[in-house]
Design goal:
Blueprint (H helix, E strand, L loop, with lengths): L1 E5 L3 H12 L3 E5 L3 H8 L4 E3 L2 H4 L9 E4 L6 H8 L8 E4 L5 H13 L3 E8 L1 H7 L1 E6 L2 H14 E10 L3 H29 L6 H8 L8 H12 L15 H12 L4 H12 L6 H14 L9
Parallel strand pairs: 1-2, 1-4, 2-3, 4-5, 5-6, 7-8
Antiparallel strand pairs: 6-7
Length: 300
């Protein structure tokens, strides 16, 4: 199949290689010239504009795969839609909010253009060697592209999950679960570090990842980090988030579903971004007032 790929960063370029390994043709576009040149150097056809990307043979149905940050999807669609024809397919493989994905589906449908929201997991390694893919969309539209999805996914790592919006909804829940799992691993190593024992975190993470109940890809990544820096001394303890945890908690509130572990994991990320929060000052002040507890003065 001929795939027109928009976004040639780390994910997009690795998916391009993965597609080529499975004998799918890829034509790439990125607004960044350096990204275009990197993929071109690997033997791919790369174009410099969306108008070039959307050139077609007579009666050809275009398959456009977006691998861009969710903040850019609206802008890309605004430029892309006038260049498309009825029954062309747009695949959003980024971490878009499922509510926006539903709106994108409805907008494109009004133009006669088909849309798939494709939840994508597995990171850069997965993009290159076999990803986990969660497809949402009209069943017949997804079926048209499904051979590509099955090819670039790891074995048993692809599923059609339901109607438009469901692919990104399932990916949102996946990422929320990921938040909780990562936080639990981090808290465990925090306690190991605080213990009186002289523990080798690299050895422990390797051992736990061979046969234990908590064996996982995340533990594997933890081991890799300790292999590079045994005490993580070069890493600042600030944790960002890309929005999916917050979106999941918002949906949980809407449907009255209790997600305390994931909520606390998200709050822990927020807490990591500042050494001091005003709310913490308020609690300290209250404790001093009602109980005479000591307060720590801010250093000048």
């Amino acid at each position: 199949m001929n795939i027109r790929l928009i976004g040639l960063g780390r994910m997009g370029s690795n998916f391009a290689l993965n597609c080529r390994d499975h004998h799918h043709q890829v034509i790439g576009y990125d607004a960044n010239e350096e990204a275009r040149n990197r993929l071109k150097a690997q033997g791919f056809q790369v174009v410099r504009s969306l108008s070039e990307l959307t050139r077609r043979e007579p009666d050809e149905r275009l398959v456009i795969w977006l691998l861009v940050p969710n903040q850019l999807v609206d802008a890309v669609l605004e430029q892309l839609v006038p260049l498309l024809a009825k029954h062309d397919i747009v695949i959003d493989g980024g971490n878009s909010n499922f509510n926006l994905s539903i709106k994108h589906y409805q907008y494109l449908k009004s133009k006669g253009i088909d849309y798939i929201d494709l939840g994508t997991s597995g990171g850069i390694h997965g993009a290159r060697h076999g990803a986990c893919l969660m497809a949402g969309g009209e069943r017949d539209v997804v079926a048209y592209v499904e051979p590509v999805f099955r090819d670039v996914a790891i074995e048993n790592g692809y599923a059609y999950v339901g109607r438009p919006g469901s692919g990104h909804f399932v990916k949102m829940v996946h990422n929320g679960i990921e938040y909780g799992m990562m936080q639990a691993i981090a808290e465990g190593f925090d306690l190991l570090q605080a213990s009186p024992f002289e523990l080798d975190h690299k050895a422990i993470s390797k051992m736990w990842n061979h046969g234990s109940i908590i064996e996982s890809a995340l533990l594997g990544f933890t081991h890799d980090a300790f292999a590079k820096d045994a005490t993580l001394s070069s890493i600042a303890g600030r944790i960002d988030d890309s929005g999916e945890g917050m979106w999941m908690i918002e949906e949980a509130l809407k449907y009255k579903v209790s997600v305390p572990v994931i909520t606390q994991a998200l709050f822990a990320r927020y807490k990591s971004r500042d050494d001091e929060r005003f709310g913490e000052k308020v609690v300290a002040a209250m404790r001093a007032e009602f109980g005479g507890h000591a307060v720590y003065k801010k250093k000048t």
